[in-house]
Amino acid sequence: MANEAQTILQKTWEQCSSLIIDLDGVVYQGKQMIAGADVAIEQFRQAGKQIIFLTNNSASSVLAIWQKLTNLGIVCDRQEIFTSASASASFIADHAIDGGQGVLVIGTEALKQEVQNYGLNLGDAHHCGAVLVGLDAQCNYQAIAQALTALNKGAKFVACNLDANFPTEGGQSLPGCGAIVAAIAAAAEKNVDFAIGKPNTIMLDIIKEKTQVSLEKCLVIGDMLASDILMANRAHIPSIWITETADKYDQFARSLPSDLPSDLPSDLAGNLAGDLAGNLRDNWATRSPTTSTHRPQPTIAMTSLKAIAHTLAIGTAHSGFE
User: How far is CA 285 from the centre of its chain?
Assistant: First the structure.
């Protein structure tokens, strides 16, 4: 098993030129860097791999995340960082989703600034063409009511992502953007028109456009089956699932049905409208230990970025589980 795991990792590594790395749960948890992540990322660079950071974070600006990484000792360029906040603003602007009427932002000041950075105007409940929902710890009843008013007037419903929760320090989780989206969807009795972040592949398209990277030569590294790995499956590119522990992966492997499909349908920009309840249900299903025939399938599982670097560097049979 150890030899097989190393062989798969080595082959996957040799075939990729770019690494698309998730942040929360892979590079850091909350304000704490995961042990060895900084050294591993530098080793990846020295091995000639292009590094791209891709996060569903919709509450922080690209600048804020760059500053966080820098303060943690991880050297990177702002152009290497892509967030669901910046991707959502870019998507709305590029496709004129708001019809030039402005965007009502249910989210942080950072999300509002990202919207303005792409030349979009901020709207209000009575004057907007799109409602953009991101994570906001201060979201309240009034914000939901404003979104309801705008949606009832015909505004498009755009979600930065549908993440039910996200990891923080100490293994704890906090409600994610999807929880806020669900509240608004329930009030408006309306499904989202566009969900921009992972697992949809819109952000991969944006990365390809802005960095000229070849997606066929990319490797996704992330800790969430429901977002990181499913996105990779949909784009038909390899992935490494960061499992934290060997036991977690073993439990996952035992639960996989023998007839699990090897590929999943790709996202199409014109076919993004979906059933919110179904999206959230699928999100939860992929996190639970119960068997699901639509469960995402990583190429390989490792415990950390450090384990990946260690396994590749030592050149001997090692499972990556420490």
Answer: 17
Tell me the C-alpha to C-alpha distance, in Å, between residue 70 and each of 30, 33, 64, 166, 207.
Answer: 15, 11, 10, 22, 21
- Residues 289-319 pLDDT 10s: 333 345 899 999 999 999 999 999 743 333 3
Q: How far is it, in rounded angstroms, from Cα 23 to Cα 242? A: 11
CA gap 301, 297 in Å, rounded: 10
Helix, strand and coil in the chain, % to nearest 5: 45, 15, 40
Report the CATH fold assignment for 2-84+199-268+295-314.
Rossmann fold (3.40.50)
Q: How far is CA 215 from CA 54, 106, 176, 203, 263, in A?
A: 14, 32, 28, 12, 16
Q: Where in the chain is the domain with CATH 3.40.50.1000?
A: 2-84+199-268+295-314, 96-195
* C-alpha–C-alpha distance, residues 72 and 28, integer Å: 9
pTM, rounded to two decimals = 0.81
CATH, domain range 96-195: 3.40.50.1000
H/E stretch holding 175 reads: strand 173-175
Token output for 170: 């100490």
Which residues are registered as beta bridge partners of 20? Answer: 52, 220
- Is the distance from CB of 135 to CB of 168 less than 8 angstroms? no
* Backbone φ, ψ for residue 239 (5° rounding): -150, 150
d(CA 208, CA 205): 5
Burial-class residue 211 by CB neighbours within 10 Å (0-12, 13-18, 19+).
middle
Question: pLDDT tens digit string along 50-105?
Answer: 999 999 999 999 999 999 999 999 999 999 999 999 999 999 999 999 999 999 99
Taking the CB of residue 95, how many other CB atoms lie within 10 A of it? Answer: 11
